[in-house]
Amino acid sequence: MSQSHRIEGGLIDRTRRLDFRFDGKSYQGHPGDTLASALMANGVRLMGRSFKYHRPRGPLTAGSEEPNALVELRSGARQEPNTRATVAELYDGLDARSQNRIGALSFDLLAVNDLMSPFLAAGFYYKTFMWPKAFWEKLYEPMIRRAAGLGSLSRETDPDLYDKGFLHCDLLVIGGGPAGLAAALTAGRAGADVILADEDFLIGGRLNAETLTLGDTSGAVWAKASAAELASLPNVRLMPRTTVIGAFDHGIHGALERNADHLPSPAAGKPRQTLWRIYAKRSLLCAGATERPIAFRNNDRPGILLGAALRSYANRWAAVPAQEVAIFTNNDDGHRTAADLLAKGVRVAAVIDSRSDAPKTGGYEVLAGAVVTDAAGRLGLKSVTVKLANGETKTIPCQLLAVSGGWNPNVHLTCHQRGRPVWDAALSSFVPGGVLSPGLSVAGAAQGHMSTAACLRSGAEAAVAALSDLGITAHSADLPEAEDAPYRITPLYHVPGKGRAWLDQQNDVTVKDVKLAHQEGYVSVEHLKRYTTLGMATDQGKTANLGGLAVMAEMTGKSIPETGTTIFRPPYTPVPIAAFAGRSSGKDFRPTRLTPSHHWAARQGAVFVEVGMWMRAQWFPRPGETQWRQSVDREVLATRNSVGICDVTTLGKIDVQGSEAAEFLNRIYANAFAKLPVGKVRYGLMLREDGMVMDDGTTARLAEDHFVMTTTTANAVGVYRHMEFCRQCLWPDLDVQIISTTEAWAQYSVAGPNARRLLQKIVDPAHDLSNEAFPYMGCAEITVCGGLRARLFRISFSGELAYEIAVPTRYGDALMQRLVEAGAEFDAVVYGTEALGVMRIEKGHAAGNELNGTTTALNLGMGGMVSKKKDSIGSTLSEREGLKRADALVLVGFRPVNPAESFTAGSHFIAREAEANAANDQGYMTSVCFSPSLGHIIGLGFLKNGAARKGEVLRAVNPVQDVETLVEVVSPHFIDPEGERVRA
Amino acid sequence: MLIPHPLLGPRDSQEFTYLGDARLIDRPDGLAEGALDLFHDYLYLRDNPAGLHQELWFHEQGDRSWLVVTRDTRTHEIVGAELASDVARARGRSK
Fold first, then answer.
1. Which residues of A touch B57 (CB under 8 A)?
2. Residues forming beta bridges with residue A169, ordered by sequence position
């Protein structure tokens, strides 16, 4: 039975046999086959079940517009749902399954939906499942999801690589049919940089599917020779298996190349698919046209397909799963199908031509003025019922029916930049119209040229015109003589009558559904689409939209162009999410930044946390510590009792230089900076122009014209961008230059009573670190470890005697290890971000939780810092009345009245007797930690008029976690409020 | 989109960060009479034209220039791009 329906001819390699499986059954095909063509060659017409009613379906088309033959391809992690069998290139070992069924494809249990169809018409979800409300989530939705679905996902990680690439060209030719080939030859021979992309694996478009001659050879041979010539030209890039999915701004096109979809698996290290961004100076859409069906009762039977698709199966793939074929047409194309099939020795039962003036030239029966009214054969077509011109009906046995309803130009890409197609009465279809995207023109059938000769001519002419725009002289390629028949059609979109006539087979939308939508008041095409789902899902209504529109026009009594058209969005065909992600998946979703001593920290067993893109050590567990708090408490206490070392490289660092650098800083910081002496560091508060705090940090003055600023880790990029804005846009003549040096310096905090003694072992003896010579908030350029240049800042986040020492990045790892060695005699610890956080809360320093974009300097208790004597960013609007009200939130500390109790960040403060609601809200807790120094939980938070409420007892209420604690308002400075330690 | 950088030629818009209306260049003097109102208008009142719009783009992944780009908001057509510092000087800003 193997390939029982393979006929003579075709563009397949019969010397090689490919074995494949469909629904567990083995079949054979040949290289050059698609899954659909190989199944057809094996006599298989039934390939799927429909979305809603689970109707048995076979392929309607032979291309990417396919609504029915959606299959699951491959298995395991590579399982891929909703693949169109009509474009799945056959390879040896291919394994495919039909989808959306329970049980066998020929006996789907959910086919009961089909019997329920009177209840499942357009809008039924909206009408049926309104109540009871709870039923939706628990009952209806899971049921519908199970019944009405497409394929399923493997839920495993995709093992393949997906890549992205960038290409530039003078002319991008989209589509490699006769128009595209003529254009590419014309432009390629003129020496222009040309890209020719076609979604098919065989360049040539309809030339490979028709029996037409071009000059003295066949269309397929001419296409092959043309493609070979293009491939040989160094200035032409020929891209088969590449779909141009969208036309975007400024001549940028997206294209998906399927590098390895035709292989069992991609070669090692090679991508499965590549998403290209093509920058084209000019582009030429030669995407051809798509044939549309004519709707009639039961026109979705497996075996009913489009005429051009059947010619493709017969001519290109030599696959005709029928002894007798009937043809239903409203234009001359149906007769071309008949002639081709006869030439192949296939019996043509009849050509049913709806036109009364149908041509009767071939050696086959023509039923002029007749229409097909019904089809029989649930799992495969057995016969069609025809209403003859005289009103009589006749049943014609056949296993295939080829339907030709006319051609729709593929205008999709012309709509991506708001072009609106216009009606062409001669074609009974829409052609490109409105404003196309800049640089885009259209040729061939996509522009409405329906003969081969016109396609060739328009392709060549459009290429000459496009290149002439670019100043490149080209001459139309020598074009072979080709058929130039006129396109004759009498529009017919559906055959009126009883029963269900299918417009959109992918979404199970019938003529009745459109009529119902109209009855219910939907007149806009866009509403029609959303109500009935016509034109949705993987095929985006390529074969369905015009039919739906025509029925709607009929109902409203308007013409089709008056009724409207749906325009198209990218992508032209479905694109896997993986292709959009490219290599940016998993841990490569975004870059990871590592500090110079990261690997050292990892060797110490550090537990890391991602901060921005940085990996920062959270704590360094020691043997025997089973719980994070043990490590953090130890690190805090050891630092406060002796000395601790912390990697603070991730802080943003900005170098500010210039004779007016001080003035510049004075304007971007809210507090005064103009008079900061050389050798000193100052805390700086940066506001946004609206008066909210943007960031804080320290800035050191190393020389009259040289400052080094630090920012928070999270805001480093934004602060730098803001400073460049101020420098370039606000004060362009100020003599100041800035550069980010975050990556250039590794920086470590050394904190604790023994910090000085430890550093004295590292810093070269020439530098006096005594409190007198190098006091709190001092800074200097020094040398360490025998001559290595370094910067030393006496600043403290922990509240202890502390320094930050910076060395060029490449010495960071070595310095960290040297510090640890030197610290051994003091039992120095290395501490992570958790201990850092605990110590800053104990000290009452604001951090990200407090600088949350909604807080002002006044909220942070630093209102006095905003200088009124100068115009700095944000100073004016921070004076707004609403921000300065007497009950404004102010940062204060909190401790539990009962030290054994706990509370959480995010809690809101409510008076003891008041109800816990928004009206009684007094503020909220921002930071909470266990203080090992005090032995209980402490917190920082914003409280209305907080500074004046110390000693007051409130409730910290967290309704989300159902926790409530009595807390006392205290100073935010839990440790050393006088600041004696930092000055020690 | 492609942005015609005045120094570097056409660059992909992905290299840039968008800020907004180029009127942000016209920052009022904070020490002037009525500064609060001036700043309110400066910060919160924007035109939202359907048509040509001058806007600030930062070449963050490039040379760190702020540009004033003139873009048609209806079509995304870009009719010009200048260095913001030049525009600022032309509007009378200096130090």
1. none
2. A280
